[in-house]
Design brief:
The structure is a homodimer. By secondary structure, the first copy, chain A, is of the alpha/beta class. The first copy, chain A, has 2 domains: about 130 residues, 2-Layer Sandwich (Enolase-like, domain 1); about 240 residues, Enolase-like C-terminal domain (TIM Barrel), CATH 3.20.20. The first copy, chain A, is built from 16 helices and 15 strands. At the A-B interface, helix 1, helix 4, strand 6, helix 11 and helix 13 of A face helix 1, helix 4, strand 6, helix 11 and helix 13 of B.
């Protein structure tokens, strides 16, 4: 039953006997796939339990169709989470994935997915290809990807991620984000030892932002289950909305013990990069909610994760892979398209710390909300002179 | 966070600061939703353990957009499975669903779903609305729904459903279907007492169609678990590919006992009309595979079930709700769009027994395969004079 050929739109009318003119753009094919590494510095580094980032060393992925339409997305190397580097992403796309999908129909998304899945791992590279194809589809049809995905609502409540720093400094950043953008949801990076340092930060932020704001924490596996349990208990008066990856999922029984006693959703993130991982971790009691990151599951598999989480009856949240501008637009398009993800605050604001953007227009956060960038495809346009300036693969 | 307003495409450019011209069709709205009951006789009645059908008393559902585009699907009343009748479907659509979704954006599929889900039950009515909206979206964008859904492949292997009759008669029908259409997969309706009657039918079909053909059985809850266990054992030499709903899912422990000992996939069908039911039944050991029927889950929720089943690691098959021509085209469009459903034979041929069709062109099965009806939307056109002739709601 499994075909290895791309669906041939030109064959379609032979069978049904129907006469409607076949839409010309249905015959669009993937003509080329390119990966362009670039580097844009952050104004300040983001520090967290599993790593630190001071430069966005990402990879722009462009899918060109036989009609000359270009779809764009980007891949974010996160070696401490997925094992990919900027160079490995470029190599995987140019050497492995591009040759296996060039010539396929642009609309044969699921056929593309089947082809790239013959290669293990490389989630960020695969995700960027998937999103670039969706962008090209939207631009070909002159409709937004957000609408194609389901168009549930047109904006999301923004949550901002606060990295390691002294309590007063983190609190001041939160206040600044509220005053400037109206943001009232904050994810605080924790997982340091002694736990008192992080607890002090959480208290300082709560005092600074008031009782109405949403606060939750992300340990990036930095604590033991026992430390996490102590921290949750001491943070009772801070009022956490949810907690994320406080201890390693590989500490299987301790993690289960921790999750069982936790009175707020325990979010799995780096432990659930695939739908099968979601099933395993949720059924084993390692989490009671999951993060969705388009940077690792693109649109096609983010939909799989959202549908799986919904079917299992657990919440799913839009997480942030320290997204640049392009991926932020992608996270927003996806998150707002589905009811289950639009219910919760979404981590969308990390792009604010970047020194520059590859896009021709700004992203904007107003009143703590971010509106979907509408228009064809993902709605943004790449500033070619900026890309030329920041790319690191030519002289 | 949950909005009750439809996404307003006209507001979209206010925020992002982007300049691309907003696609005109993004502003298309749902202008009206109509339900037209009709009746077309079957050449011969189909008999099975939970009921019998001699007339297709279905409901055509048409969604008209503000651009004048019309999307079409149909709802199939199956009172013995979902409690809906032809009249209840018309009433639910005209009185409840239409008023709640008219005025929403055509592309706000997930918003539409949220609105109709405020009313419990009525799966066939909801499914038809969802599919009619997808058809209207495809026609608006001039692309096939099959491509929008993922476009995995362009054809499916057809499986034919054989109803109750004498062994020689059922075997002759199978042979005729092979000779005429090349069909080599057969689902035999079982669930009668004594079980010997059904076993005789299965043996007769296997003898007639040879060892290469695929045979599986569907009990529609007609047997007890003990009877089903005996039947499976006696059918060992017939070689079943899978078995379906052999005993009631509400016989919880007996069903689990039966499924545990079953060496082929045990398919849940009427016991899993929703994603939550899939999770419950699979986790409780009541089945090891699920049927997907667009007639009850439309395209949006069929995708949810397919993604859920894939994430849970179980097979999903395209089942047949005794589909008419319109729903057959829908089942085909969906089933061929996803890798997980395209892997297995799909029940698509029941339309062959209808005396007439509402479509302007034929559906066709060749070499046991059915090709997706390509073209805009679902690719078919309604013959207005036929609809006028068969509709039962005017003089």
């Amino acid at each position: 039953m499994t075909t290895t050929e791309a669906p041939e739109a030109t064959l379609a009318n032979l069978a049904g006997g129907y006469g409607p003119t076949l839409a010309m753009h249905e015959s669009a094919k993937i003509a080329s796939v390119h990966a362009i590494p670039y580097a844009i510095p952050y104004r300040k580094p983001l520090n967290f339990a599993s790593g630190s980032i001071s430069v966005a060393d990402n990879v722009v992925v462009q899918v060109r169709t036989s009609d000359g339409v270009v779809g764009t997305a980007e891949a974010l190397p996160r070696p401490y989470t997925y094992g990919e580097t900027q160079s490995s992403i470029v190599a995987a796309i140019e050497d492995v994935f591009a040759p296996s999908i060039v010539g396929l129909g642009l609309f044969a998304r699921e056929q593309v997915r089947a082809r790239v899945d013959r290669t293990v791992g490389n989630p960020s590279a695969k995700a960027a290809i998937d999103m670039a194809i969706w962008d090209a589809i939207g631009r070909t049809l002159d409709v937004s990807v957000h609408k194609l995905l389901g168009g549930y609502t047109d904006s999301l409540t923004v949550s901002h991620m606060l990295g390691f720093a002294a309590p007063a400094q983190v609190a001041a950043e939160a206040v600044q984000l509220y005053e400037r953008y109206g943001i009232q949801s904050f994810k605080i990076k924790v997982g340091r030892r002694p736990i008192q340092d992080d607890i002090a930060v959480c208290r300082a932020v709560r005092e600074a932002v008031g009782s109405q704001a949403e606060i939750y924490i992300d340990g990036n596996r930095g604590w033991s289950a026992a430390e996490a349990s102590q921290a949750i208990s001491r943070l009772g008066d801070v009022g956490l909305a949810r907690v994320e990856e406080l201890c390693p999922a590989d500490d299987v029984l301790s993690r289960r013990w921790l999750v069982q006693q936790c009175s707020v959703p325990f979010v799995a993130d780096e432990s659930v990069p695939t739908p099968a991982d979601v099933t395993r971790e949720i059924l084993s009691g390692a989490a009671t909610a999951v993060n969705i990151k388009v940077a690792r599951t693109g649109f096609s598999d983010s939909l799989r994760v959202a549908n799986l989480a919904e079917g299992l009856g657990i919440p799913s949240n839009i997480g942030n892979q320290i997204d640049g501008h392009i991926t932020t637009a992608c996270s927003l398009a996806f998150g707002a398209s589905q009811r289950v993800t639009a219910r919760h605050s979404a981590e969308l604001s990390n792009y604010l710390d970047l020194e520059d953007s590859l896009l021709t227009g700004p992203l904007s956060i107003e009143g703590g909300e971010m509106r979907v960038v509408d228009g064809s495809g993902l709605g943004f346009e790449i500033d070619e002179s900026k890309l030329e300036h920041y790319r690191i693969d030519n002289a």
